[in-house]
Amino acid sequence: MNDKLIIFDTTLRDGEQSPGASMTREEKVRIAKALERLKVDVIEAGFPAASPGDFEAVQAVANIIKDSVVCGLARALDKDIDRAGEALKGANRARIHTFIATSPIHMQMKLQMQPEQVIEYAVRAVKRARQYTDDVEFSPEDAGRSDEDFLCRILEAVIDAGATTLNIPDTVGYSVPDQFGATIANLIRRIPNSDKAIFSVHCHNDLGLAVANSLSAVMNGARQVECTINGLGERAGNASLEEVVMAVRTRKDVFTCQTGIDTREILTCSKLVSSITGFPVQPNKAIVGANAFAHEAGIHQDGVLKSRETYEIMRAEDVGWTANRMVLGKHSGRNAFKSRISELGFEFGSEEELNEAFARFKQLADKKHEIFDEDLQTLISEAGFEAEDEHVKLIALKVCSETGEIPNATVTLRVDNKEVTGNAEGGGAVDASLKAIEKLVQSEATLELYSVNSISNGTDAQGEVTIRLEKAGRIVNGLGADTDIVIASAKAYINALNKLHSPDQRRHPQKGDV
Questions:
Q1: pTM for this one?
Q2: What is the largest CA-CA distance in the chain?
Q3: Could you tell me which residues belong to the region Regulatory domain (predicted)?
Q4: Antiparallel, parallel or unpaired: β 69-75 and 42-46
Q5: How far apart are CA 60 and CA 508, in angstroms?
Q6: What is the pLDDT of residues 444-465, one digit of tens each?
Q7: Annotated binding site
Q8: How far apart, in whole angstroms, are the C-alpha atoms of residue 139 and residue 51?
């Protein structure tokens, strides 16, 4: 069991490509710190050439993370690689991950290049990346639909050029486990210098097979898996980090390798990513779903009470479900609050920030008796949302809803420093509230998603509302939380409106989709 499986997390890069899941620099740093506590081997912090904001986020993560390798993505272009090298300058350990498409359809239709040109670009990119770091990863984009003979040629060439990790991506989620595993085995066997590089996989979940394909690859010699927290990612997402890690840990009889992940941090990391991105975790999600260790059937309950192993193959404690945690309340002081927030991976930049956050905490404590970690994470995330761009701010909301009457809402907003008040009727209290807000701001955005999730247990729990808006092809997620679900909904809608109002400078020339 000395064979190490490297866990490469791309939540901050590929995970951010989920529609509406963009993160601020500060949020990326918070997640990166959580991933470091999780003992993730490699953190792919972003795509520096995509935008100034992405460059700054990668730079910030590189400057603060000490234990994990920090990676930046770059197309096989000089300007991309130079940008990544600059962003990673302050990293304790840096990796540049460069890629170019290798499938016939991508080379012909997207790149409009001949195979020999693609090899030339790949080799040049790896050599240029080696000027910045000796840790260089290369990905043949859309490898799952690429010719195996051509893959062997280009991968042999980039190893000779200095690539130390070869990542084989199933970019469109087209592969199935037996076939994908066989591809990895064939590449390792056929490439003469394959022993000089680590083989990695990056699987998408379009057919629900991302984890299965990744594990099949591991069984056939891959020793790095690229994955995300909660399986977040473009389209149907990526391989779920928690599922890959716990499968390898639980089935030691099958996998001849082990990870260095501190699994007790999995749940905290999952909740943090969910809170920041506004993507709730489904209750029946493996490992981190609310029902993952719940037993409804009487036979199951009886078996678990007699011996846990009858129906549980993992301990809930091992992934953080029942770990001891400090529960704060209205009598908790600033030091206890600051200490717990720090343990959750957030540091205050000034005493003023601490005081503002503590005031929010006290307001929440007046509404609910016990404050859990999930409440604190949401509290900090909400503060960050409001600090981004308060083009619209909620001042007051009054709702009337009674049996036999049409619900109506009156809302007061501050829009560009001017207070305005409006009212509207709706099918329910939430509908009336959002219509009243829209009447005042006239955003003309389309509501694509409305989702409610309970942050913790109890009737006094905060409700977390996610709202997705679309306008002119741009998609944003808004997040709001409150013990009153109507207010939480208004906050979420306003948060989304503010994101729509801020300029979107992010660009993905090839979407960084490996």
A1: 0.83
A2: 77
A3: 393-514
A4: parallel
A5: 20
A6: 999 999 988 877 667 677 888 9
A7: 14, 202, 204, 238
A8: 21
